[in-house]
Design brief:
212 residues; mainly alpha; Arc Repressor Mutant, subunit A; Four Helix Bundle (Hemerythrin (Met), subunit A); 4% strand
Amino acid sequence: MLKKIIFKDEVKKILLEHILVGHIKPGERISLPRVAKELDLSVTPIREALTQLSETGIVNYIANRGFFVMELSITEAKEIYDLMAVLERNAVKNSSYTTKQIEELRGINGAFIHAKNALEMLDYDRLFHQKLIETYNNGLAVKIIENLRVRISLYDYAFWNQDQKLKSIAMHEKIINYLAANDVTKALTLVEANWIQGVQYIIDKLEKNLSK
């Protein structure tokens, strides 16, 4: 059973990367036979992985038609980033941080600086935010946050650039410093602001694309 779960998660990760880098585009129907052939797998693990991804909102299942990659939209961007800001703020508020965890956060943020492409940036950003809430003792909320993070990754990948990377790194460093100083109030303000500034940048880009 453990091997099966690991295998399914590996397929899910591969499919997510295919979607993020544009091999499967927003709005496009996902051909299970084609993907199975490319990955040299049967259709069953592909379908299982896509069913898991549908729980995150990054793909949508339509009866008798199949799985489709979700479109990007300004309305959804506002909703999911605003929700993430609220959920993560509450998670950090109800978390505790040891000296070791603070140093681990610094280490992840330091590695983030050297990310060479958008996928690496997303990986380090994800690791930072996961570490930020690892002591939060609310399993349901953590699952919702993780699913939101997958959906958000489609927006982040589409619009990440060096300027946004540097802004995130700087905000992460301030959050770490406030947590290290036990100034939770300022840390919470920045946790929320980190998501809000990100979505505003994405909304501006989406609006510019729509006006073309």
